[in-house]
Design a protein that fits this description.
Number of helices: 10
Strand content: 15-25%
CATH superfamily of the largest domain: NAD(P)-binding Rossmann-like Domain
CATH class of the largest domain: Alpha Beta
Radius of gyration: 19 Å
Structural class: alpha/beta
Distance between the termini: 49 Å
Largest sheet: 6 strands, parallel
Order of helices and strands: EHEHEHEHHHEHEHEEEEHEH
Strand order of the largest sheet: 1-11-8-7-5-6
Helix content: 40-55%
Number of domains: 2
CATH topology of the largest domain: Rossmann fold
Length: 280
């Protein structure tokens, strides 16, 4: 029996509509600023999507575009300026940054209460300690998809393929909060297939096309594909061999149309939450 395809577009639309209704009642609207360094085409598409999302939700939006060779101090000055802006509740930096820039210094410069994607070390620490904080958008999106399809991670085994600071590590932390037993795999994992076959919930964010094949999946597992790759024909795809795995899994996310739209919707929700905490 084919798997249930987890519809991220419909869930994202529902989240954004909830945000829009709340924003509509606010006297002072939430505001978000995105900082882009360089002219990467994918980043430009990403930025355009954020602009549309904010428009749909009634959130004020600004973009700060900086040249590829921007000096470190100039970038930090932009962030300090946004930290002081009362109209800006959320600051989003497009990572990764060019090699000459210090990612950590940039993360440290963002005011923690405006850090709507949980990159400041103090927020990452709160996430790890189980304290209240704004969750990083992609891992939060995965958790929201699981909840939407009534998939409770408690008492289940999850294999997380990928150990990045953006997805893999925080995703593991959020699953642990829900009493899930988590195994984090990476490029040095000796037998990835065996680890994947143990999983009731398999999440992949490795960035390798067709890394996860049907023989690596337990019958009836839930498969969440976070990666965004391009196949040999230039089409968007994830890490998972969707056609084959969907015949074995119970639920599966498509790429595109799965985790991605929900990630963007969570950013709107986080910006609203930050605005409420700022007294708006």
């Amino acid at each position: 029996m084919a798997a249930v395809v987890m519809d991220g577009k419909t869930l994202a639309a529902k989240i954004k509509e909830q945000v829009r209704r709340q924003v509509e009642k606010m006297e002072r609207k939430p505001g978000m600023a995105m900082v882009l360094v360089g002219e990467d085409p994918a980043a430009q598409v990403y930025e355009a999507g954020k602009r549309r999302d904010c428009q749909q939700c009634g959130i004020y939006y600004e973009t700060y575009r900086l040249p590829e060779d921007v000096p470190q101090e100039e970038l930090l000055d932009v962030i300090r300026f946004l930290n002081k802006r009362e109209g800006i509740d959320g600051i989003l930096i497009q990572f990764p940054l060019p090699d000459h820039l210090d990612d950590r210094a940039v993360q440290m410069a963002i005011r923690p209460d405006k850090d709507v994607d949980c990159v400041h070390p103090s927020n990452v620490g709160d996430l790890t300690l189980g304290m209240d904080c704004l969750w990083p958008c992609t891992p939060a999106g995965v958790m929201r998809l699981l909840a939407e399809y009534n998939i409770d991670p408690a008492f289940k085994n999850c294999t997380m393929v990928g150990r990045s600071n953006i997805v893999g590590k925080p995703q593991a932390m959020l699953l642990l909060r829900r009493d899930c037993t988590v195994t984090v795999c990476h490029t040095k994992t000796p037998d990835l297939a065996a680890e994947c076959r143990r999983a009731d919930i398999l999440i992949s964010a490795a960035g390798h096309t067709n890394l996860i094949t049907a023989d690596m999946i337990k019958e009836g597992a839930v498969v969440i594909d976070v990666a965004v790759n391009r196949d040999a024909d230039g089409r968007l795809c994830g890490d998972v061999d969707f056609e084959a795995v969907s015949q074995k899994a119970s639920c599966i996310t498509p790429v595109p149309g799965g985790v991605g739209p929900v990630t963007r919707a969570i950013l709107m929700e986080n910006t609203l939450t930050a605005a409420v905490r700022h007294g708006k």
